[in-house]
Amino acid sequence: MYRLAGRLAPWFGGLCLLSLALGLYLGLVVAPADYEQGDSYRIIYIHVPAAWMSMFVYVVMATSSAIFLIWRLKIADVVAEASAPIGAAFTAVALLTGSFWGKPMWGTWWIWDARLTSELLLLFLYLGYMALRGALDTPQGSARAAAILAVVGVVNIPIIHFSVEWWNTLHQPATISKLDKPSMHISMLRPLLLMVLAFQMLYFHNLMVRLRTLILTRESRASWVAELNPETGN
Amino acid sequence: MRVFKRDMKLAVRSAGQWLNPLLFFVIVVTLFPLGIGPGPAMLATIAPGVLWVSALLAMMLSLDALFANDFRDGTLEQMVLSGHPLTVMVLGKVMAHWVISGLPLVLLSPLLGLLMQLPEEAYLTLLASLFLGTLSLSFIGAIGAALIVSLNQGGVLLSLLVLPLTVPVLIFGSGAVAAAGMGLETSAHLSMLMAIVFLSVSLSPLAIAGALRVGVAAGR
Amino acid sequence: MRPAMTDSSVLLSATGMSIWRGEHLLVDEVDVCVSAGSIVQIQGSNGSGKTTLLRALIGLAEFDEGEIFWRGESVRRVRDDLHANLIYLGHKAGITAGLTPLENLLSLCPELSADKGESSSRDRIRQVLEELGIADRIDLPSAALSAGQQRRVSLARLRLQSATLWVLDEPLTSLDVNGYDWVKAEIQRHVGEGGAVMFTTHQALVFDPHPVQSIQLTGDL
Question: Of B136, B166, C24, C109, which residue is least crowded by CB atoms under 10 Å?
């Protein structure tokens, strides 16, 4: 697993750079300015992929936590542990860019819009998960406790999201869900999808790198780690 | 049922267990008029939110001790070892917690509604929403309390873990009271609360029991 | 790997138990076998992992490697059966300060009141506490009891509950000479009746005529 992660990491990294470059070019240079929002709409090329990934990573985390709880597969727990900070970072980016977008759009840095609020709560869930992991000292104990929390969290996310929607029905309809009948022009949509791909690859790349570190830390007493070449790490 | 009776007996003997959250509830609600100003119209507008947030915080306060005492004196490990299903015992414990800490809040809330100039039409809904809401708060919060049971200082962490999960309860609960105050239909809010109660009562004992096993294994 | 289970008297057995504490190998490939009518003592200095091993064997602590069997079946499948036939007395007495010894014992031994009803189980508990010399404390809050008296309350379970396997972690802590003799006699009676005892202690104990198998732990923290 350690070697596999090492081999995959540069591929994901390369794909990420490629789609990132292409997406940014198409999004920032080729795509036309929005006639209502001007150039400031272009921040969605960061905001939407980050928001999408913040949820995707949580689902990955909860799924691997469930796998860990049911089959006691240690690697699944490593995936969950490695994912949490990455997911939290995506969530924070989504919140920040959302607020930068909000300033010219709504004239204020923060608005209690349903999706922003959900995103904020998601950030709290990530932080809680990481805090719980940090607080428990035995490795097996913290792994299973954190896994239970992640699964409880993922059961709650739809309910939280639904309740927040209910609470604030005054918000724009989700942009990306209308894929089959795009409300955006194709020249704007294409870079957006590319950016989503780039963020996805960024996640996988980061995940692989963090997996390697975590596996090494956890297995530091295993003989194969001692046999690794300190120069190349292989 | 045995666990339920045991916890009730303990609560009767130590008044602080049910009295402290209740006093906390009263004091927090009292702080709002002092901080915002006594204007009746203003108070009436914020009353549903204030009452609900205060009740939520009072519940959090009471959760800390839910499993911690049993963990410390070894009762919890004996429960795990008893050979009886842990989920059933957990159900008894959490129900006892609700009767001790949640129900008094519900019963006292009309009095505080009076202080907050809550419109007359809203009282019944206040009672109903808090009744359902505190019940699910007990169950949701117990998950957090179980997760941190082996830690000595878990109070702030508990809030960090549990509060985001309680958002739906807060939204539907205070929403119901606010709607009732404006003379609107509240059955939708209340049935959502009811659904959350069913969900949390049926699913959370599994998570709580799992978390308690982990906690007992982590303690020496 | 499943050990040969031709001997049906084997109750609890474990093979290759290893437990790490961080960077430290606390318990290294220890095998345990507890049969009916036998006494197993786990020995080792302070911090050598005696408690951790005991707790791991009955499912109260995590372990890194090894396999545990209860009556020849993997303990993962028969955990509840193991627990139903087990009395574990640990460092924590399991005595709630706000309840009286009577109430504590009633809630620790649910089968007692279920079988006999409240008043006759009260008599039974009083009788055992009398032997232990604390019958006069039966209705006092347990918080008012000394450490040794609380220990005696939890030891009363050995007489009140019927369980095949006793797992006793330092049962003699804070006991005086009378208590010491009582525990020794109880262990002898239990083993004589076909039960099994696994315990840790720093005192040297001899149970004539029953031999004590000992497991020596060398790891230290």
Answer: C24
- Angstrom distance (rounded) from CA A167 to CA A114: 8
The DSSP 8-state label assigned to residue B166 in this structure reads G
Chain A residues closer than 8 Å to C62 by CB: 138, 140-141
C-alpha C42/C-alpha C48 separation (Å) is 10
Report the distance separating Cα A142 and Cα A134, nearest Å.
Answer: 8
Calculate how close chain B gets to C102, using CA atoms only, in Å.
12
Task: Examine residue A177 and state whether it is found in any structural domain, yes or no.
Answer: no
Q: How far apart are CA A139 and CA A141, in angstroms?
A: 5
- Closest by Cα among C152, C208, C211 to C183: C152
Residue B183 sits at the vertex; the CA angle it makes with B178 and B185, to the nearest 5 degrees, is 80
Edge-to-edge strands of the sheet including C165-169? C86-89, C165-169, C196-200, C39-43, C212-216
Q: Structural domain tally of chain A?
A: 1
Residue A179 domain flag: no
| Structure-block tokens of residue C167 | 């797992």
Return d(Cα A49, Cα A90) in angstroms, integer: 9
Domain membership flag for residue A180: no
For A69, the domain range is 2-30+42-171+186-225
C107: chain B residues, CB-CB within 8 Å: 2-3, 6
Neighbours of chain B (3+ CB pairs under 8 A): A, C
Cβ of C23 within 8 Å of Cβ of A140? The answer is: no
Query: Is A61 a domain residue?
Result: yes
At position A29, the amino acid (one-letter code) is: V
Q: Do B80 and C94 touch (CB under 8 A)?
A: no
pLDDT tens over chain B, length 220 residues = 678 888 888 888 887 788 999 999 999 999 999 998 888 888 998 999 999 999 999 999 889 889 998 998 899 999 999 888 899 999 999 999 999 999 999 999 999 999 998 988 899 999 999 999 999 999 999 999 999 998 877 778 999 999 999 999 999 999 999 989 888 888 889 999 999 999 999 999 999 999 999 988 876 5
3-state SS, residue C106: helix
**Cis status, amide bond into A10, omega within 30 of 0:** no
**Degrees to nearest 5, angle at CA C10 with C9 and C13:** 175
- Distance from C122 to chain A by nearest Cα, in Å? 40
